[in-house]
Amino acid sequence: MSPEQWTRPENEGTTGPPAATAAKPTREQVIAGLRATSEGGADLVQLLTPEGQRVEHPDFDIDIPDAELRDLYRDMVLVRRADREGNALQRQGQLGIWVPLLGQEAAQIGAGRAVRPQDMIFPSYREHGVAWCRGIDPTELLGVFRGTDHGSWDPNSTRFHLYTIVIGNQCLNATGYAMGQRFEGKVGDPDGEATMVFFGDGATSQGDVHEAMVWSAVYDAPLVFFCQNNQWAISEPVERQSRVPLYRRASGYGFPGIRVDGNDVLASLAVAKWALDECRQGNGPVLIEAFTYRMDAHTTSDDPTRYRLADEQEAWKLKDPIERLRVHLVREQIADQGFFDGIDAEADELAVRLRNFCFNMPEPPPTRIFSEVYAEETPQLVAQREDYLQYLAGFADEAIAGGVR
Amino acid sequence: MVAPALKSPVAPVGTQTVTIAKALNMGLRASLERDPKVLVMGEDVGKLGGVFRITDGLQKDFGEHRVLDTPLAESGIIGTAIGLAIRGFRPVCEIQFDGFIFPGFDQLVSQLAKLHFRSQGKLKMPVVVRVPFGGGIGAVEHHSESPESLFAHVGGLKVVSCSNPVDAYWMLQQAIECDDPVLFFEPKRRYYEKSELDPTAPPIPLFSSRVVRVGSAVTVAAYGPMVRTCLDAATAAAEDGQELEVIDLRTLSPLDLDPVFDSVRRTGRLVLVSEAPAEASITSEIASRVQQECFYSLEAPVLRVTGFDTPYPPSKLEDSYLPDLDRVLDVVDRSLAY
Questions:
Q1: For residue B275, what are the contacts with CB-CB under 8 A and spacing of at least 6?
Q2: Nearest CA of chain A to the CA of B66: how many Å?
Q3: In this structure, which topology does domain A26-359 adopt according to CATH?
Q4: Probe site for chain B from A121, A140, A172 (most B CB atoms < 10 A)
Q5: Is B75's CB within 8 Å of A375's CB?
Q6: ipTM rounded to 2 decimals
Q7: What are the Transketolase-like pyrimidine-binding domain coordinates in residue numbering (chain B) (predicted)?
Q8: Could you give all domains of chain B from N- to C-terminal order, each with its CATH number?
């Protein structure tokens, strides 16, 4: 597939200037014509229908062995269970906040399983499923939300950057990293390197994301922009972010943009693999819009009942990514009840392990405040640490003497 | 990637008289030659050689992938430099003018400053951001500001400023060798002032301040463009029989205040000089620390000569805004009057 195919202006009728003979549409008509910002649209790549029916796609067909299909199911069930446990732990006061991924399992597992070991990933803060694919145990995510660390995994060895909380910042960091891959000559063959960056629909309004797309285009950076359009940026709908479907923005930067059914793990995997291969071979960057839905709150501090209708949520429940793969596995006799029971048992064990780990997480010592601020520590920080430790030591004396603070 | 220890320059040359601009160019060249992971990036740094020609000739000699003419976006420059640093490069970013650093401020304080701490040392951020700063060149708005205090306030960043060709040459190379992010403030109105530079003479450490004129009456401390102003004031004061001790602070975060404390203990008086607005600034910090450390040595309150707590004025007013020799001498007299 040639990138040009994807850089053509598409559907001029909805986004381009009106034809000379046509009456100028009203603002309302223009917005109504952009249904694709809130509906899947005809350009949606799908390989598995919401009913679990396997469908063909002329450009993105993919042959997935049965064992791999079962693995994808297992991935999604386990990350959903870890996510639900994170929510529960926050409700129990064990976590300060949790960022749910409920509903976005297929987008994340599809993309995450398309990435190869040599590739680099830059997540935002909801990418628990991608982290899972990178071999990062869900327990390692807890510190960020419990407040004991800012991410305990090693971004160098896992090739999974730390979570980035400022919206869109990571897109520029990923662009620089991908530029480095190109400068080092790591692209241009099928075994080359690529980078994938994750962000949401809200992030597409940020200047950093725009700059990242400009830079990655002019430097031919091997970077896949993976936008999870979950329809809501806290309470702001995607219509508040854009007047064109997000994937179509790519053509303005001069690279392919493509919309995939983000609740279809097979399509997400196929499109992400294609995009990463484009980058590996030196044809990057690529924008993927994974069209999905955030079934839960933005974070546990959010109250979606104030801004969205139950109807919408009910409609998206019918597109549930796990259920559709489960139906497919059953219909095609790829998995039996024993398999599903086994996965459920594994999920139960994971939840228990996560809970126990959380309860037993040690508090970081006060010296953590001062540690690793710089590669070369400053005299001021040394002095501040010594002063503070001396201050704390005063309380220790009181405790030994049986004093009451 | 571990940078090699800073040794003599790759192609030693004899002592020569150079401008600060030329010394910076020589420093960049030496770093690019020494370490293939060093990159120079910014708007117009390639073919043009930068708006001040600091990067003149570098792209021609090192190629487009070592000296990058970037798109016009400061957040992009800093943000991609961070990614390149994660990849193992040592980017040196040029911000064209002080007032244009703010579009990159978010990446500087949200990511560059914090990634070493956030990763508990697993990610090093050897990024240098060069900023031509300060007024006195008759420029339009946003071309004459002194925002250095904003960066000194941010944990995780280091901030330095050179005032002469020798420091320009060495401090820039040292900043590039440093594994921490360094904001490198260049005194643009002094770019074309000259002095002798011997590239074979050993440098003094990057994060240290230095007594540049010995005296016993009043300690005067400054950095960047104001060091020359203070040295001129000291010459004038000497004609009136008052010997000022002048300290070039050089490093603003971390501050190296031991030479200042030592000096104040001898003179009993301190005047701080900076173009930046006074409130919540580098000079506020030094005044606070000096009263804490030298309380019983002080014969007068610590006084300051600064810009005003206003936006930088139109250039026809900058002579009124900027501290000059007379304002420095006036405050020196006030200090002596206590």
A1: B134, B135, B146, B224, B225, B226, B306, B307, B322, B323
A2: 9
A3: Rossmann fold (3.40.50)
A4: A172
A5: no
A6: 0.94
A7: 18-193
A8: 16-197 (3.40.50.970), 210-337 (3.40.50.920)
